[in-house]
What we know:
The protein folds into three domains: 4-117, NAD(P)-binding Rossmann-like Domain (Rossmann fold), CATH 3.40.50.720; 127-288 and 315-377, Dihydrodipicolinate Reductase, domain 2; 405-550 and 576-651, no CATH class. The chain is 17% helix and 38% strand. The strands form eight sheets. Strands 16-15-14-13-7-12-11-10-17 form a nine-stranded mixed β-sheet, with helices on both faces. An eight-stranded antiparallel β-sheet has the order 27-28-29-30-39-35-34-33. Strands 23, 24, 31, 32, 36, 37 and 38 form a seven-stranded antiparallel β-sheet that branches.
Amino acid sequence: MRPVRVVLAGAHGHGRHHLGVLRGLAERGLVELAGVCDPRPVAPEDLPGSPAQSADLGALVEKTGAEITIVCTPIHTHADLAVAALRAGSHLLLEKPPAASAAAHERIAAALAETGLACQVGFQSLGSPAVPALRDLIASGALGRVRGIGGAGAWERPSGYFTRSSWSGRRRLADPDGEVDVVDGALTNPFAHAVATALAVAGAERAEAIAGVETELYHAHPIEADDTSCVRVRLADGRVITVAVSLCATERHEPYLVVHGDEGRATFTYTTDELRVERPDGRVETTAHPRADLLENLVAHVRHGEPLLVPLDRTTGFTRVLEAVRLAPEPVPIPERHQVVRRGDDGEVAWRFLPGIDGLTALSAQELALYSELGVPWAGVDLLVGDTSVASYEWRPGLPPADSPRPYLHPVRTLGGVEVTQCRPDDHVHHLGAGVAIADLGGVNFWGGRTYVEGRGPTWLDDHGTQRHLAFRDLTDGGFTELLEWTGPDGTALAREERVVAARQVGDGWALDLTFTLTNVTGAPLVVRSSATKGRPGAGYGGFFWRAPGTSTARTAFTADADGEEAAHGSRGPWVALTGTTPEGRDWTLVFVQDAGDAWFVRVAEYPGVGQALAWDRPLAVTGTLARRVVTYVADGRLDAAAVRELLPRLYDR
């Protein structure tokens, strides 16, 4: 039988691996390399045979009569090239990941349906008989009830790995028509096999088997995509899959999957096709499996109708995970204090290591936990003053809709360690430390709890919005810039926000400097209202808000010229102070400073809290942007008005 004519699109990088495979199959008479498509021509002596070369894939397939095209090109080019090859009449071996988005995946699937041709996806690990063997083991009940599958992988990659091409380490690229998705992160490219193999072992290769996906993306290198990340996939049958990976290890650790059963455990090292089964009676069985070549399998499919090992429709589950990564907030930078940085002879950073990352990925696989659940210091965002951690910023709160989920600061501490915020107290569970909350923005409740309805009073409505974290910029130990989107209950965006937070020492205390700028994206006036503007006098809260600990005693508030809650509440002076004493007898003081002239919302007796009142007694219409800055001085002990006046020039300086 004549050899199958093959065109290779992408002959450099990983394409060299395919050239080696093609050379071996050509020697066996199974294939003939008929053409090479690459913008950089390949030297003839590096190619088996004498293939034609062209940068036009469709024309090359038609000219050579290729029956199979291997697409081994940058991720964002997969869909266009796959569709071009299919429409030119060629079957596909499509490298992983199959596409950079769910929409691109669907384009390829539509072209397959249109042409009736075949597509094999290059997840090589799925060519191992160990995968169906492990699935059979699970189905037999030999491991008992399986609660989940954990995956772990930690490799070392130099800084140059992320600059080897224009698309390396990128989430998206500029394009004449806008932007194109790339999604070149650790989970979706180098460790894509871990995700795809875990889904295959679980029998969840298709998207409908997945109920939800949680992602945590980080990067130690100054790149756009993630180099250290984890994902938790919740399956429709109740089981979970976690995969934790990093490219910042000091050496290579072979990635593996662990199947957790209540009567046994199985570990599959998919790069070596080794399966280890631990029985409850102490017996351990280790088997090594061969691996089928995916191109050879595709050739057998084309010639003899042999079933494909990795058809495109069995990778929709993987693409569902990739889509969650694509749409996730931008990866969080890992501060350099958590890294070990090595420089080359030229002084440039050559390596970035995360100490203990191999153990951390292993712990994730064992516990089926995300990094943030394992107490990893770089998985959170902390503010430091000198070497003292003074505040933690919760940017993925995981709250119920009725709390109007939003990022917040908690706990916030004095330099002496006194906690001066409270989160989700029993009296108002939607009070979240220190942050930004508005009772009514364009008819949406971004405060949490009940909504005040004129004539009815506080009423439970399905009107709660969400402040969705998009990205951090300039994240350092002393502060950050955060981009957020304010969305309504139906997911419609009402506003974009830029939030700038900084911490600095001032005298014996420290100052939290927070500026938020809301930009209306609705195309119509966006109105800020409060309960006060709807008929509840004095309830003008909305804007920056700080909930102090309700367990504090001897609480009082004062301004530059008046003492007490009644005098401070509704005042419009440049500052207001709140003091209290912890149950252990330690005093604290908070001084809030602004220059916008907004009224202050102050509570002392019912609960301790201070905030802005953007709509104190009348609605505030936002047509473009709304910007406000509040500086909060956090101090041990009790300050008086004279001490505040002395500090004021150092607290609020434009």
